[in-house]
């Protein structure tokens, strides 16, 4: 699962004054996360909910992509309690959207209580529901009438109050179909090529391994995988932990080493002492306060580095009426053989006020003894990217010196296509690789990779075009400037991007998605293309998640993963 994703500031307390007579469908339509029923799908809706045990026709539905927005999942429990108090007879149903049903079931049973749960492993709810984003980004609340097969209301409602609950219980009118009120749904059915039937030279599978199941490991997903120094590490989404496995000498099998996550002291590091302890513990239990694990790598054969997003909670005013909740990035270093040898690297750097450092993806160079962090623009979406000074400092990565505890330089820059479209840092997929003093950098969607020498990170040694993209490839609706929809309009257009880069003493390697096909390309020291290999998207009838590149024993491979309904498998090409 690719989550697109970079973690942004999140405030729990939203303020919106609603009138006593709430028009729920109007309120839902004003939300940035919209949902509507597709016209003519009444029978599909009825069939989808036909197995619900409660005989009532009126159902309250929570649609949740598990762990997609984990801090908002506690919001569902709050609504549940208020709804049950007001109307205990109508059932509340959870649609738990996740690929691995067994893992999803364990997660739901440990965290929620619902009378009925639909475990939707293939997002079949999209057969009757439309969204204005590719997938629901937040938990959505719906009220349906099974008898008529209609969605009565649904959305991300900004207020939780008795007035809202009353309005929800009393609401009986069907919600307009998709297209009757809003129609800015993006077509996310990306066009794909019949890659296997093309005349491309195909990469052969080098290794296939089963990720072993362990009693202490859930293995719900394989997110942000990394292979380095003889280890595989990845984030498990539902367990919210970093899993670490070691390979044998011939890379035929792997063994589970353990899982890593922030400890209690680290979780509390940025929580103000003014915050009530009972409130904190209750919110943590519900999942509305959570420390999230993201990417990882092995610094050497004994030390794992993994990035975390810690809760930063404090009061905005002296009266303690406004509570602020932010994500505080940090890196945790841990000796895998010694639980005592552990330290936290806070990312509180003296950076430009207009930018912040992301930790969703980071890189460590053992040769340079430096960290590389993605640098992103922080902006107001209504004015961002249209200001003249928006691109004064278009760096992609900040270089952090751990010994000095400061950012010492930057490297790479935002692609020209982003500046031409005025979309800033919204569409970036930055990737970086180092070998000795050489550094390869890509912004992802411009199709360009730049190679630098560490002694001169302002001017690249050379640039390589992996694929071409130009302004003429995009249809621009300028009337949407200043709205969120302006940026949404390009989501289906950025269909090609560089997934990963790798560099060694002889070659530059790229992994790219181009017109629905995955390619591993090899370039010489001057950026001249030497070889192109097609990476299959299907293996043993299973769809592959093509994740990135890795170096093993002096050779570079593409990493791919799939779930065979029992085990997660890794294939190297």
Please give a structural write-up:
The protein has 573 residues and is mostly beta strands. The protein has 2 domains: 24-170, 3-Layer(aba) Sandwich (Glutaredoxin), CATH 3.40.30.10; 201-572, TolB, C-terminal domain (Neuraminidase, 6 Propeller). It is 13% helix and 37% strand. The protein has a 5-stranded mixed β-sheet, with helices on both faces. The chain has a 4-stranded antiparallel β-sheet with strand order 8-33-32-31, with no helix packed on it. Strand 23 (448-453) and strand 24 form a beta hairpin. Helix 3 (74-86) packs across helix 5. Residues 1-20 have low confidence and may be disordered.
Q: Key terms for this structure?
A:
573 residues; mainly beta; Glutaredoxin; Neuraminidase; five-stranded mixed beta sheet; four-stranded antiparallel beta sheet; 9 helices; disordered N terminus
Structural class: mainly beta
What is the correct CATH architecture of the largest domain? 6 Propeller
Number of strands: 33
| Tally of individual domains | 2
Summarize this entry quickly.
By secondary structure, the protein is mainly beta. 13% of the residues lie in helices and 37% in strands.
